[in-house]
Design a protein that fits this description.
alpha/beta; UDP-N-acetylmuramoyl-L-alanine:D-glutamate ligase; Protein-Tyrosine Phosphatase, Chain A; 6-stranded parallel beta sheet; 13 helices; 19% strand
Length: 397
C-alpha cells in the first residue's frame, strides 16, 4: 500500500480530475491561511465574517485538512469525512456554488501541501498568521520556500494580509505584487485577569489605519484571537466592507472547540484548554500567559509536543522554566521528555492515559479547590478534548 501522505494525494488528485471543469466554472476565490500557528482561529473568524456579510463561504469543519480536504472545499463540501456515503455522492454530483470564497489552510510548519495546491488552484487572498522562525523541525527551509512561492503567485488584484512585524521577515518581499494589508501587532495583555471576568461580555479594541474598531464578544479573548481579529479586518478592508462591521457584529460568534476554550469546572473552578496542537511557539505562549490568570491554584495537564522537536533539550528547557507558574503538573508523553521536565521544583507526575481519562479526572477534581484553574495544553492525538468534556460535565462538586 502506498505511503499514507502519497495515498492522500492520489485520492485528492483523482477527485480533482473528475470535477476540475466544474471547479473552474464555479469561479471560486481561495483565501489561504498559512503560518506556524493561528491559522484555524483566523479562518474561523473570517469564515464567520464572510457569512455575516452575505457572502457564500466554504470552510472545512475540521481543523487543518490535507489535500483531500482542500479539493472537497473547492467542491463546496465542508464535511471532509470520506467515511460517509453522502460525502462521496457530493463529490460526484454536488452543484458547486458560484463565486464562493473557499477558506483553506496550507503550509503548516511540517506540511508540504502548497506545491500540490499551486498545480491545481490559485490563491486570491493569502493570510499569514504567526510564524515561528526557529528551526524546531526538519525541513524548515522547504516550508519557507513553499510559502514564498505561494506569496509570489498573487497578482495586483489579490491581497496579502499579515502583521506588519512579519513583513520584514519575508526573504523576497520586494517581489510581491498584490495589495498588501499590514496589520499592527496587538498589544499583549499584562494585567492580571480574575477568573470570573473570563465569562463576562468582553469589549476588545482593534487599532486599524484611520480608525480603531470596538467589538463585543460573549467571553474573554486572548492574544491569538485578538491577532486573528486584526487579520480579519484586513480581509474585510480588501472587500471594501469595513463600514458594515458594527460593535455587536461578533456577539453571536461561537468559539470553536479545542482552541482556547474556557469552561466552568463545577461552581467555583475554571478550565482553560488548548488541545488541538502543541508546537513550541503556541505551547510557550500558553504557559507564559497562564501567569496572568488570578487563581487560588493552577493545575497544568501538558502533553509532549508533536511532531517531535529536533532539539529536545533546548525546547523543553524553555518549557521547564515556565512550570513554576503552576501548583501541580500532569505530563503525558515520553520518558525522554519527562526526564527533562521533572527537574522542575513544581510537583510533576507522568500519566499514562491509554484512552482511560477517568483516573486523571478524579485526581484533578480532588485537587481543584475554590478559585482553581485547570490548564490543558496538548496535541490532538493525546485526546485532551476528552478530559475537557469529562471535567466540564462533572457538575456541581
Amino acid at each position: 500500500m502506498a505511503h499514507f501522505p502519497t495515498l492522500v494525494k492520489i485520492i485528492a488528485s483523482f477527485i480533482y480530475w473528475t470535477r476540475q471543469e466544474d471547479v473552474k466554472k464555479s469561479r471560486a476565490r481561495f483565501i489561504v491561511f498559512t503560518g506556524s500557528s493561528g491559522k484555524t482561529t483566523t479562518r474561523y473568524f473570517i469564515d464567520y465574517t464572510l457569512k455575516q456579510l452575505g457572502y457564500n463561504s466554504i470552510s472545512p469543519q475540521a481543523g487543518y485538512t490535507n489535500e483531500i480536504g482542500i479539493v472537497l472545499a473547492s467542491l463546496g463540501i465542508s464535511d471532509v469525512s470520506l467515511k460517509k456515503i453522502s460525502t462521496w455522492k457530493a463529490i460526484f454530483y454536488n452543484l458547486i456554488p458560484k463565486d464562493s470564497f473557499v477558506c483553506i489552510e496550507l503550509g503548516a510548519d511540517f506540511r508540504t501541501d502548497i506545491p500540490w495546491f499551486l498545480k491545481r488552484f490559485k490563491a486570491n487572498v493569502v493570510v499569514l498568521t504567526d510564524s515561528d522562525q526557529r528551526h524546531w523541525f526538519g525541513g524548515r527551509h522547504n516550508i519557507e520556500k513553499d510559502r514564498q512561492a505561494l506569496f509570489e503567485t498573487l497578482t495586483p488584484q489579490d491581497a496579502f494580509i499579515l502583521s506588519s512585524d512579519r513583513f520584514d521577515e519575508l526573504p523576497d518581499a520586494a517581489k510581491l505584487k498584490p495589495q498588501i494589508f499590514k496589520i499592527n501587532p496587538q498589544e499583549k495583555f499584562t494585567k492580571k485577569i480574575e477568573i470570573f471576568d473570563l465569562f463576562k461580555d468582553y469589549q476588545v479594541s482593534i487599532p486599524y489605519p484611520k480608525k480603531e474598531y470596538l467589538f463585543q464578544f460573549s467571553r474573554r479573548l486572548f492574544d491569538p484571537q485578538i491577532s486573528a481579529l486584526g487579520l480579519t479586518l484586513g480581509v474585510v478592508d480588501y472587500l471594501r466592507r469595513l463600514p458594515d462591521l458594527k460593535e455587536d457584529f461578533f456577539m453571536d460568534y461561537v468559539f470553536p472547540e479545542e482552541r482556547l476554550e474556557i469552561k466552568r469546572l463545577g461552581l467555583t473552578s475554571t478550565i482553560i484548554a488548548d488541545t488541538y496542537k502543541a508546537i513550541p511557539n503556541c505551547t510557550e505562549w500558553f504557559l507564559k500567559n497562564a501567569d496572568q490568570i488570578q487563581a487560588s491554584k493552577k493545575i497544568l495537564v501538558l502533553s509532549e509536543m508533536k511532531p517531535d522537536v529536533i532539539n529536545v533539550n533546548l525546547y523543553y528547557g524553555e518549557i521547564l522554566n515556565l512550570l513554576p507558574n503552576f501548583s501541580k503538573v500532569y505530563f503525558v508523553g515520553s520518558d525522554k521528555v519527562f526526564n527533562i521536565l521533572k527537574k522542575t521544583s513544581t510537583p510533576i507526575e507522568k500519566i499514562n492515559l491509554e484512552n482511560n481519562y477517568d483516573d486523571l479526572c478524579q485526581k484533578i477534581l480532588g485537587e481543584a479547590d475554590e478559585g482553581c484553574v485547570v490548564f490543558l495544553k496538548g496535541a490532538q492525538s493525546f485526546g485532551f478534548n476528552n478530559i475537557v468534556r469529562k471535567l466540564s460535565s462533572s457538575g456541581n462538586r
